[in-house]
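Why this split exists: single-chain examples teach little about how molecules sit against one another. For that reason, every record in the complexes split bundles all components of an assembly together and asks for one structure covering all of them. Below is a record exactly as it appears in the raw files.
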Amino acid sequence: MNSRLLSLVPMVMLFILTTASLYFMAGAAQNQDRFEERYLYLIYFNGVLLALLLIIVTWRVFVLVRDLLRRKTGSRLTWRMVISFITVALIPVLMVFWFSTRFLGGGIDNWFEMDLGQSLEDAMELTRLSIDFQMREQQLQVEDVALAINELGDAASDVLLSFNLENYRRAIGAEELTLLGRNNRIIATSSEYGDLDIATFPSEDVVLNLAQENNYRGLEPQGDGSMKTRVLVRLPAYGRLSEPRVLVGMFPVSNRITMLGNQVQESHAQLNTLVYSRAQLMQIFILTLSLVLLMSTLFAVWAAFAVSRQMLSPVAELADATRAVAAGDYQQRIPVLQHDELGFLVQSFNEMTSRVEQAQNSAELSQRVIEDQRSYLQAVLSHLSSGVLTIDAAQNLRTANDAANRILESKSPLQKMVGRPFVSLRSNSLVLESFIDQIKERLQERDWQVEIPLFGESGRKVLLCRAIEIPELEDQGSGTIIVFDDITNMLTAQRDAAWGEVARRLAHEIKNPLTPIQLSAERMTHKLGGELQPTQAKILEQSTAVIVQQVEAMKQMVNEFREYASPQQPVLELQDFNLLVKSVADLYQDYDSGSIQFSPGKNVPMIFVDPGRIRQVLHNLIKNAFEALSETSDGSVRVTTRYVENDQGRYVELAVLDNGTGIDDEMQEKLFDPYVTSKHKGTGLGLAIVKKIAEEHSGIVVAKNRATRGAEILVRLPYRKAFNREDGVKNT
Amino acid sequence: MLLFVSPLYAENEATDASAYIRMGDITGSSNAGEYRLNTRLDISLSEEMQDALRNGVRQVYLLEVQVRVPRFQLYYKEVASEKHRYELRFHTLSRKYLVNYLRTQTQRSFYTLSAALEYMGNIENLRVLTNKSLRDFDDFQVRAKFMLDIDELPLPLQIHSLLNRGWRISSKWKTIEL
């Protein structure tokens, strides 16, 4: 037996107790002889049971209402079941109650409408007449005695009276014959039993009655069940002194008549009592019925609670478990206690949750694997030295790694801009702007590779950029992966190495023969100078002088070229850029070819540069400008500096402008290559050196024709607050 | 439950007011260990009770006599008590009201109820506390009460009187120092 069934035991016991008690009560109400005394106790007992039930049911209802307000699982279903139970139980019980009371009312009245009452009444009257007949005889006899006593006269002695009374009593068969005077004074008496009973004296109302009539006769029931008749006769008074006298005769009633009279009296009293108390009897029946009704209803309510708890507990458990599962707890299992449809439901629920749990576990496992892979890829990407960007089919940024941020000098991490249109990232940095401008046309293409020169906050850089189309994925669509490397340093190194090799070979191939040539020419002058005629000697001297001069020139050219080609690390110092430019420009104040004018920019800060190298840049540029003015009469050179700070970065810009002939279109592209010149003089290395020095400073050089006349060469040098020698060129 | 029962009682309410028992002062005497009580009772029955009487319902009245010994403050300990029963009934055959002192089976009959009640209420030289030894108590108190004995009524009327105050008539306790 489980705990649920055990909990029903008190209810069943109370039910049995109540039913038994009601049964006895109903029996008591019907059979007065057997249970009359117990009926009241049964009412009290049932009252106690009723109160107990009422407390239990009230408590249950209170708990249910509380659960309803708290929206506890199952409370609404319980409420409905209880209401249904009450309705189902109450309607038939009320109908039975109603019909029972109607039946009782009609039934009881019918029982008492029988002729029994009338028969008894008749029997009673008959007995009464029979006794009255006797009493009338007795009254006549007592009246005769009274006349006889009266004839004795007023003066008759008490002894004589007593004697005569004894005789008269015996003669008329009376039990007792007494002559009473005023105030019940006994004048004379005669009794069959010798002593006088208190009952001899007539009661006050009999005396009162006697005052109006001269005699009285009446039946007097005795305490011991016997009956006597009493006859009173007033004696007429004699003269003034005589007192009013009353003769009292007591006669026995025969046993037979007494017995019959008593029986009739008893039956009549019983029937009358019954008839009289039928309203009260109805009350008892209705009370019993009401108790049955109330008990049944309360039991129905209680049973409704018990049954609904029994039935709904698996449902409530299921509901709770379902809620737990919905909240993510898949370990919910409900014990299967029943082997019915509900039990099957519970079992199915358990199977479902176990499957859901398995599925959830495997999903979590896969999720974890995916997460691991993703974080692995993320780690790889973030530790990659190459910048990686992926762009989806709609040209929105999808991923970016740390290296992309570093190379493209993005001010805020690109990872935070995932989902935004790729083109909208332009404003993020100067490098990014230039980068996007140069590749945006290519994004439509499938696979491509390109070198992209850029100028950013940290100066000029060249990126090697490759793009591959990624295959279409189910949920993300197609896209492009762009991988790029900063190859600036590599390119510089390659070029430096190439030019160094050229310089070494030149020095080797050209410079080596020069010294013997020069020595041979000098030796020729020295050996032959004295032996030749003066004119010949002069020719020789002039020729050797030309040889020596040209050899020197060639040596200088080779040195310059070696200097250009050899890789040099600038020695950076914090310099006042305006002052540095001015010191060089001042040297050209008295130059023949034209005038020079220096316009220092405002707010140009101190910057880290190699002053010697920058002076060389200035010399080369200014000389170059003056050379361009050779065919111009009013030639002038203007040198300006300025500090630029905008969203794309911060740099110092040096501009050298002239109003000369300008730059030929075909020269434009290779102006800064070595040995490219439009002039007759010079090595053709001036602008190449300028470019080299500018790049050594992570800067760039741009040459263009001016809108009016002449050319303009701009040198942009990145502004650095500090310089870290270990990192080479680096902004912090 | 009262909903179903109460209408049956409503018609009786009006007549109940006239039923009462009032007890006059008690006098008593003791002579050689024999105690006697005298008192007069004013008894009035309601129409319903008279009706019941005429319909054969016998009514038993109780004179309850208690002997109490004071203990502390207002508390008394009951040391002896006895009940004297008087039966009042209507004898249809003789058309008389009978009063029977059940202890001695002494019965008197009366034509009128008032005479019967007058007789019953006139308690003279009633021997009480017979066979009770009160010598052990220096200071004791006797009190008496007269009432209708509900338990002697037929069952339907007992239950009726449970719910109807009019039937529960009783005098107040009257005390006498013997």
